[in-house]
Give the backbone structure.
Amino acid sequence: MTMCSTPKTNLAAATPKVPFRSFMASMTLAQRQQFAEVANRADERRKIREDRLKGQSNSKSVVKASNSTGNQNMPLMKKLFQFCKQHIVI
């Protein structure tokens, strides 16, 4: 005995005619290792770029804040040090 609200399918679930096969399955071990190395290097570059962009946005807000406080009275060496700190990437 089934309840009225129980869904009942009339058709069996259709299975795909072509089995799914990832592109990695067709690669040799050496090709997969090379692919992983390239992907890891790309990921590292992406993280470095994101960190650099975050740093630039933070330094821009610092520059805006320091400009509003009036860096006109700041000594020349301090201005030079601040400039180097903001624009030279180590």
About this structure: Residues 14 and 33 are 36 Å apart (CA to CA). DSSP finds two helices and no strands in the chain.
